[in-house]
Amino acid sequence: xxxxxxxxxxxxxxxxxxxxxxxxxxxxxxxxxxxxxxxxxxxxxxxxxxxxxxxxxxxxxxxxxxxxxxxxxxxxxxxxxxxxxxxxxxxxxxxxxxxxxxxxxxxxxxxxxxxxxxxxxxxxxxxxxxxxxxxxxxxxxxxxxxxxxxxxx
Length: 153
Description:
Helix content is about 35%, strand content about 20%. By secondary structure, the chain is α+β, with helices and mostly antiparallel strands. It folds into 2 domains: about 5-40; about 55-150, no CATH class. The protein has a 6-stranded antiparallel beta sheet with strand order 3-2-1-4-5-6. It is extended, with a radius of gyration of 24 Å. The model has no long low-confidence stretch (mean pLDDT about 90).
């Protein structure tokens, strides 16, 4: 019969040790990652996970104005209200991400962003002030539809 002391009764140096096998696995993962990225850079491998360049079929400048954790107002570039959403859902999440990107880059005010639909069906929100963008279709059809409605209103 083996008896193991509870964590609080073990010597301090034994409680705080990370298993050597785990440390070696983490090191191997880091080395493998650097090797793969290094090989891609050295061989000048073309990026493969990027969307194909496609012309924009429709575009609209909008202003996303957040009010609290859930509410958002969407305005046209000239200030007309497109949507006043007390529970904005995904639009609020995107607006929070945009606000964070602008805060990090020191953008003041709330300049318009560009809602862009491409000929191949992609839908993106692009901030010309920071270069920040989000592919809206990767979050599901319902979330994409929330922004598509803003293009047609």
